Structures are given as structure tokens and as C-alpha cells.
Amino acid sequence: MRFLSAMTIALLALVSPLAATAAAVPLEDLIRHPEIHQVKISPTGSHMAVARSYEGERVLVIMSLSPLKITGSLRFRGKEEVGEFYWANDERVVAEVMSRRAALEAPVNYGSLFAINADGSRGKNIFGYAAGEQQLGTRIKKAEATYAHATIIDPLVDDKNEILISTSPWARDFESHGDVHRLNIYTGVRKEVVGLPQVGGRAFTDGKGNLLFANGTNRENKYELYGKADNGWTQVTHPLLRSAYPVGYDHANSTSYLVVDTPDDTETLVTWDGKKNIVKKVLQHEIADITDIIRHPRTQKPLGVYLNPDYPTVQFFDEGEGFAPFYRGLKKAFEGYHISFTSFTRDGKKGVLQVSGDRLPSDYFLVDLASKKVDFLLSSADWLDPQKLNPMRAESFEASDGLRISTYLTFPAGTEESGKLPMVVMPHGGPHARDFWGYTRDAQILSQNGYLVLQVNFRGSTGFGNQFLDAGKNEWGGAIQRDIAEAVQWAVAQGHADADRVCIYGASFGGYSALMNPIRYPELYQCAAGYVGVYDLELLYKKGDIRRRDRGVAFLGETIGQDPEVMRANSPLYHTDKLNLPLFIIHGEEDERAPVAHAEAMLEELEKNGKPAKSLIVAHEGHGFYNEDNRRLMYTQLLSFLDANIGVGAAEQ
Which residues form the Peptidase S9 prolyl oligopeptidase catalytic domain (predicted)? Predict the structure, then answer.
């Protein structure tokens, strides 16, 4: 491709995703961080900005497209690196600043913003704790240090100097309200527009700088939606919209698009004419909630939705002046993959397309919507050959009480018809989260080493409607664990798994389940590995970041209750006598979500009962390991642990 040949090889290392060889993928390649994190085109289409890894740090590289060359870059060095970024106008990019200031390996977003021109000039901290400037005797307003997070809510396309941001102040109790500001992207000077009505939310605009909504939660952790009024905000009381989330605006018809959290059902996309107070249903899927919105490339009007009932799919409700047919054509060209646009030019004629799948972390393409030309740009992990990775298969079964449970199976290469494979059950975290079809590092590592991997969207998972979510409340140790156990029994009954070679491994809530499931169903497992897990439910009220805010305490009350006897009955720490199998406990010393005290207490109790477990406690890591050396250590030991108990002898030594 002529477009590809012009790329700077040292910067982009472009490799087609279609190359194929038969060798398995080594662990070293699977633990690596992606090379490319995001690609976005500028409003005029003259430049492209790329967030990528360089010497272990995330940096921003800006390139002109004609001629194709690097024009500017942003690298902080030290403990800071580039996070999410946005084109604020034709020449200037605003990037979030990530920092390792908390002695963690993983960088954390503290809310700061840094702006830089496409030619690399005029770089400046414009918001956050590092944005302050001295103001000695001058009347000229200067940037001030702000201890808050900022979310860009509107680039203000008609204002070349300012953007609109919604802020969330730092506060250990998470009870301080934020504000909406106009922020100068060159000077960092900001002007307050209005305060926010609740905590933990943000404001929303019509895409042209006009505020429409704000959301947040009250102290009981109940979601609230507010509409913009002349003097601040008014809570939306329409019975269908109290729990709605704004997702777009149609200027032609002066209507807002919102996703409604429907009681006892899946989410519904609706339109709302605020002046007439008329709500109209647009779309609802029978199984799945709405994952994201497809918007018109020029007007940003919602045209369709992304859905994930099992495999990713889309539904359009508006042809969008020919965009929907064009998108369908792209989808057909990339059959078997998930596609979405990261950005468009202001005129909607060009865009950057992200393509991903179960065997493809992400590839990026430049799309000319007028000529229908599609050119390959970059691969996020060009060292991973899709032909060597293992496909993920979506299936489902009916739980004993009739609930539909979705699963994902990742088979070792060439074993889909073999049957009776050694299996690792991998319950997800949350529990209010879900697994998706797509590239999953852990599933690839385990399947590359000979294990069938079973992922389960048990009750309480998000993405399948309110009734499914609510079915998991106060069921951490009950019905949720039954779903996981029944998934194991289903996989065995289908002939996929060998009942005598099953282990369970999970992180966070998945780590809790990795120990709780063998307590409830000891006959199913030959070993268990808990990673950054919660092992004492009472401890969630005493340690960690959840208990620091009223909303966090309310969340715990809704999900695990407050009865000490019930919490102990559902805590692995108090049932070590039932854990008669090999155990592996993995944790980061700096974990704030599930403090290392969970692992320490569990290991101490096991030792006391004469059941010493294998353990790996790593300094400077938090809720999941980030450092590649630490990842290598963890996965090497995990694979050896699995090999010793259900193994196939494939672990890399």
C-alpha cells in the first residue's frame, strides 16, 4: 500500500494483521503492554495524533498526513505519562496526565490536563494540581492549581480558545460537588459556568456548548438526573427518565437521546422533547443492554447502537444520510471483527476506524467516507499474529432456576472437537461488570498453555438488564456461586471439559469466587487461585477505598448486606476448613480496592489450620499487576501451579 510505505518504520513498525504461522504465542509476547493505545484524526484531517508506548512510557506523537511526517510529540518522562487525549481545535491537542506518584507501578489519572500544538509548540499544564502560576502584583488572570479531576464535555467547535469541562474535586469522603468551567486551552485560565447538582457525575451538552443535563448519585447511592434550568439545575422527575443517561442530541428536531435503565428489563433508548415533555421509545434489545451509541460523523446525531448479547452486534434506527449502509459495508469487509470509529473530521468525510476481535487487540485504519477508501494505519500489538491466537466462542445455558447465563469458551489450538480438556474457570470481577467477546490476555495465556478457559456472565453481571443485575444482589456467596458451579457442570456435560481436571482462577470479585466456589462446591475443583481477591466481607467496611464514601457504604449495604453473621457465612476467611485443595494467593501490596490485608489474613488462617498455600505478594502493585516483569513472574508461577495440579506440562519455565 502506498500509504503504508511512507510511514516512519522506527515509529510505527507497521505489520499487516493477516500474516500467519503455526507456532504458539510465547508468554513474553502476551504479557506486553499494547504499543498503540489510541489514534485520532484532527478536525480538518490535516494531522493524526497517536498515543503509544515508548521505552515503557505512554507518549503522544502527532503527524501530518500530507506529507506524512512527525510534527510534534509529548513525553513527560519521570513519573508522568500521557493518558486519554482529545483534539480541542484544528491545531491543539489536550491530553490527560497519568502519574505514578502513589508509589504504584500502574499510572493513575489525577485529573490534570496538558495541551500542546500539533507542531509540538506551546505545551502547557492547563488544569490540575500542576497548573498553578504565580500572580505577583498583576491584574492579568492566570492559571490556578486545582485539586480535581476534569472531564472534557464539549470542545466548543466555534471557540478556538476554550473547551468546556466538568470537574470532580479530590475528597477522601467523595462528597464535594464539582463545577462546569470554560477552560482556555492556551493559558489555563478558567471561568466557572455553574456548579454541579450531585456528586460522582458530570454535565452534558448538545454538542454546541449549551448545557442540557447533569447526573450523579445521592448519599444512598441512588442515581439522579438533572436538567439545566435558568438558575442552576432541576431534578428530572419524569417517571421514565429518572434513571436515564444522556447520550446525544438531535438539533434538527430539538430532542435529546437518553438510555433508560428500565425496571425488570434491558435498557431502552428513548428520545425526549423537553419542551413538550414527550418521551418516545427508539430501541430495546430483548437480551442485552446498550453498550454504546453510533453517531453521525458530521452532526453527531445518534443513528444506532452497539450491543453485546453474546457476540458484538449493531442495530441502526436511522440511515443517517447513507452512513448506516456505509457502516454495514465496512462491517461486511471486516466480518468476524468488531468495528468502531475513534474520531472523524469536522466535515465527516474522514475518520479513524478501530478494528478488534478475539484474536486481534486492535488495528487502526484511515477511512475516506467519500471515496470509500480504507488504508491500514497501525496495529496496537503487531507482534501478535491473529492466526496464532485462539478464538473465543460464545455459548449460553439455562440455570437451574431458568435464568439464561452467557459464557465464553477459549479452546487451545486445534482442540475444539477433542473433548474432556483440562479447564480453568475464570469468573470476572465486579461483580457488577461482565465479560465480552474479544481479545482477553488471561484467556490467551491459559489457552496457549493447553487449558480450556471458561468465562461466565453470572447473575449480577451488567449488560443483561435490571432483572439480571438485581438477581445478584446479596448473592455473592449464594446464587452467583451456583451459576459459576452450574457453568462448570454444563461445560463437563457438553463434553468440553474433563471433570477431573478443573481449576478456578479469578481477580477481585473473581478472586473471591475462586475461593468461595470450592467452599460451596468442593467436588468440582482440583485447585484454586485467587488474584487481588476479597476474602473477608466485613473487612470491606473497615479497609480500602469503597468504605471512604457514603455512596460506597450504601453500595456495600445493597450488595453484601450488614449482618455480621451473614457476611461471615459468605466469606472464604471463615471457611478454610472446607478448602481441601491446592491454593495460590496473589496480591499487590498497594491494592486500595481489595487491600492486601485480605490476602494476609487468608494466608495466616490457612497456615493456622495446617493448610499452607502458595502465595505471591508483590510490592508497588495495586489492584492488578501492571509492571511487565511482575506480570511475567505471576503468570509463570500461575502456569506452574496449574501444571502441577491439572496440567498439561506446557508452562514456560
Answer: 439-647
